[in-house]
């Protein structure tokens, strides 16, 4: 075997163009090639095993990182939901409180208007009853007294009636995503 050219040679080649090349026996050359192949295979399989181990370890780390990111997103989402629920509850409580104050004002005004109506109806009944009596000096006094009572009857002007409305803000999915945060995947 020609060690320089790494090819099998015959005895006639030794005398010819392979002049000056080193030769070894075929058995020795095969043993050497087998050893080199075995070493290279061993090195490659070791490297492949190391790569597999690194890939598996990194897959586990990546899975853990993914779970951590999912948990962080979920926690952030739950916190934002809780904040939204709290804000909604506070807004509703404030609307109820303020609307109750407005309704109480209107209820007092309504009660006063009903009292005025009853007083007016009572005066009208007195007037009709007075019309049925005989005209005399007492009647004149009662009519004048009724006139004073009518003048005391105060009709309140109507208040500015409260109005309530809600103006929602446009919220997109991107707005929500920006509230939650972001992640990077490299």
Automatic annotation (TrEMBL):
Residues 2-25 form the B box-type domain. Signal peptide: none annotated. GO terms for molecular function: zinc ion binding. InterPro entries: Znf_B-box. This is B box-type domain-containing protein. It comes from Mytilus edulis (Blue mussel). The lineage of its organism: Eukaryota, Metazoa, Spiralia, Lophotrochozoa, Mollusca.
